[in-house]
Design brief:
Monooxygenase; disordered N terminus; mainly alpha; about 70% helix
């Protein structure tokens, strides 16, 4: 009886506890995951299947790609389970080998998608990363592994967007899915390497097609300015496209492919774009470091304006800490360009002051110096916004401030750029005062001043200079120019006026009348011959002077003529109409029409603004 109720157990049964249902189930599940993963991974192993060498995994409706990524994810879960339970198991080694095989396949797919879609990923659709269009198209890709029932929604969306947009959005979603899988599997480094190599080559190639070259300071300094200017024009076009399209979309693409890992996306973007962006934004600094001269001013301002206008894009696109060097380069270029502009403004002022011509300009016309300086300054006014930034912290040092009367009204703008421009014009006007002293004839010196100041006023009135200097400046200097013209009439024709009686309508003896006619004839002919070569190039000013002269001279002569011609016919050479005709031929200059040949340009003065 005892033997029946107390039957001894075998030693093995006494030591080993009953099997754990939960442990067996977990192990079985992991084994099953590994078996399923092995089946699919080896099926797409190019070393095993020649079919896989030709057909990509990511094609068609992505059904197999979804299964493949799900298998990799399950394989990773199995590996994590095995590491905890038995890190030395054969199953773990098997799983690791399968994972390496899967990663090689995904690397190949990732690389091929990048190459096949290099053009599509550079299109406008890339920038619409959050649009409903992209969301709909992406549903057909592996980025949404759980949603397999949106075919109808996708077809509806497809009808409203282009085929290329679909391709690009699907490609981005495929890249994102592969990147997520590789990164979560511990293969981030391999993923980043493939991505950066392919995308960097695309960026470099695109910039090359835009004409961007990687130059150093020595190369730029050895170039003729004409060559540098062409490269600046190319750069101005390229930087706009690069920042608004190329780098902008590359940043969006990085953000789209690596949304789950910002540091990885940041690192990829910095590696892809950093070097080329530094080179692109460093070119203006090279130009700024070259030899300065006035004709380089406007291209230098163009460069400054381009960087300044695109600063919001630069700051936004290259906002990462890893791309801070790009922002720094842009700022350095602005600083160097600003320094170059200030140096050229100083040189320009000195060139005006040092103009050494000691010969009076023929005919009292507008000096080439005046034309050049005012054309130059009017071009500067077109850049007033940029110049305001450049000279904001560069005050004009004067022994005494510019008088309020110079601006025409105390309410005039006295901003640094306005004061700087006003000062440059004042330097020119002072130089013109000195040039006027070269004339031996006072009347001709006044005509010279009238011509040149009138030219200055017209340039100010008809350009953006008026916005800087104000109406008061124009009115004040216009009045001064008219006063110079009035002084010319008074001084230039004083002998002729003096030959007529103080009261032309007064009756005088015939002998005195004949003597007056003789004196008038001699004075008029002498003055006419002397002033035949004098010139007023501006038609409006010329007509105003002639009208003023005719009103005074012809009117007085007519009164005298009509009162005293009887008995003095043999001494009368000119009727009032004759006088008017002679006056109408004046102030055109000996060259006919007041044109000035290019040979009259001072050889010491730089050429016209190259803009």
């Amino acid at each position: 009886m005892r033997s029946i109720f107390f039957k001894s157990s075998s030693p093995s049964r006494a030591i080993i506890p009953p099997p754990s249902p939960s442990r067996s189930f977990s192990e079985s599940l992991m084994d099953e995951n590994i078996d399923l993963a092995e089946s699919l991974i080896t099926e797409w192993d190019s070393n095993v299947s020649s079919y896989c060498k030709i057909i990509p995994l990511f094609h068609g409706d992505r059904t197999e790609a979804k299964q493949y990524l799900r298998s990799v994810r399950d394989l990773q879960s199995a590996m994590q389970f095995l590491v905890i339970r038995d890190s030395a198991s054969d199953q773990l080694v098997r799983a690791q080998n399968l994972m390496q095989m899967a990663m090689k396949r995904l690397e190949k797919e990732f690389h091929q998608i990048l190459l096949d879609n290099r053009e599509h990923l550079d299109l406008e659709s890339v920038s619409v990363s959050t649009s409903s269009t992209r969301s709909s198209a992406a549903r057909s890709s592996v980025s949404d592994l759980e949603d397999d029932e949106s075919d109808e929604e996708f077809r509806v969306a497809s009808r409203s967007i282009s085929e290329v947009e679909i391709i690009s959005t699907v490609a981005m979603a495929d890249l994102k899915a592969i990147a997520d899988c590789m990164i979560s599997s511990g293969y981030a480094k391999e993923c980043m390497k493939i991505y950066t190599i392919v995308r960097k080559s695309i960026i470099d190639e695109a910039l090359s097609h835009l004409g961007v070259e990687r130059l150093n300071l020595s190369q730029v300094q050895k170039m003729d300015w004409e060559v540098v200017e062409l490269k600046i024009m190319t750069w101005l076009n390229a930087v706009k496209i690069a920042l608004k399209t190329l780098f902008y979309r590359e940043r969006i693409l990085c953000d789209s492919v690596f949304p789950a890992s910002v540091p990885i996306g940041e690192s990829c973007f910095a590696e892809i774009s950093g070097e080329s962006a530094m080179s692109l934004l460093g070119f203006p600094e090279l130009v700024a470091k070259c030899k300065k001269s006035p004709e380089k001013m406007f291209r230098t301002l163009d460069l400054y304006e381009a960087i300044s206008d695109h600063w919001p894009e630069i700051e936004s696109i290259f906002s990462f800490e890893s791309t801070s060097a790009v922002r720094t380069q842009a700022i350095n270029s602005l600083i160097k360009l600003g320094e170059a502009v200030r140096a050229m403004l100083t040189d320009f002022e000195m060139a005006i002051q040092k103009d050494s011509s000691k010969k009076a300009f023929p005919g009292g016309g507008v000096l080439p110096l005046t034309r050049y300086v005012m054309n130059y300054i009017s071009f500067l006014a077109d850049y007033s916004g940029i110049l305001a930034d450049i000279v904001a912290d560069w005050p004009l040092v004067l022994q005494s401030p510019l008088p309020e009367s110079y601006f025409g009204s105390p309410e005039s703008d006295d901003s640094p750029i306005t004061v700087r421009i006003a000062w440059l014009i004042l330097v020119l006007l002072c130089k013109l005062d000195g040039k006027a002293e070269l004339y031996n004839d006072v009347a001709l010196s006044y005509l010279f001043l009238a011509n040149n100041l009138h030219y200055v006023v017209v340039k100010v009135r008809t350009s953006n200079l008026k916005l800087l200097l104000g109406d008061g400046w124009v009115t004040s200097n216009e009045s001064k120019a008219k006063q110079y013209a009035s002084n010319y009439v008074r001084m230039g024709w004083s002998k002729v006026f003096a030959s007529l009686p103080e009261i032309p309508t007064a009756e005088i003896p015939p002998e005195q009348a004949r003597d007056r006619f003789k004196k008038f004839n001699a004075a008029f002919e002498e003055t006419y011959r002397k002033q035949k070569a004098w010139i007023v190039p501006d038609p409006k000013l010329r007509d105003e002077i002639k009208v003023s002269l005719a009103q005074k001279l012809v009117s007085a002569y007519k009164d005298f003529f009509e009162r005293n011609r009887v008995g003095s016919e043999s001494f009368v050479r000119y009727t009032p109409d004759d006088l008017g005709n002679y006056l109408s031929d004046l102030l055109y200059g000996s060259g006919g029409g007041g044109s000035v040949s290019s040979s009259a340009l001072s050889c010491d003065w730089p050429g016209r603004p190259g803009r």
